[in-house]
Design brief:
With about 150 residues, the chain is mainly α. It is about 15% helix and about 0% strand. The protein is built from three helices and no strands. It starts with a helix and ends with a helix. The chain is extended and about 65 Å long.
Length: about 150
Amino acid sequence: MMIQKLSIMVVLLAFSAYDLPIATADEVVSLRGSIEIDQNANAPTIKRYNKDEEPIARDYIQQPPLIPHAIAKYRINLKSNKCLSCHSWKNYRQYSATKISQTHFEDRDDQVLANVSARRYFCTQCHVPQVDAKPLVENDFKPITAISGE
C-alpha cells in the first residue's frame, strides 16, 4: 500500500515539475456528450455506403486498401468468403473489382501458395469499409507526399 501511495506521489510531482495539466473525471469529454452512462443516448445517424465506388486513395505506405462499398451482409468464415466472389484472380475482371494482392498467397515463411493464405483469408482484419462522414474528433493528419503526390 505504501509503494502505491509513493508511486502516485511521484507521478503527481512529475506533472507539477513540468507544469503539465492533470485531467480530472469532470473534464473528460466523451463522444456520447454529457449523457450519463446509465442513460440512453441518441443513436448516431446511420451513414450510407454508395453502391460501389472507385478505390479510395491510401494515406500511408503499406496501408491496406479501404473498402469503397457496404459489406454488412458479407459472410467471411472458414467455409466461405464473399469478398473472393468478386476480388479473386478468377473473377475480378468480370466484376471490375480490384484483384486480391499476390502477397495474400504467401505464408509466414514467404512460400507461395495456390490458395489465399490462412492469415490473409479474413479480409476485414485489415480492410475496412469507409463512408464520406465528418470525423468524430479533430484531426490534422496529412498523407505523406510519396503516396499522395502533393
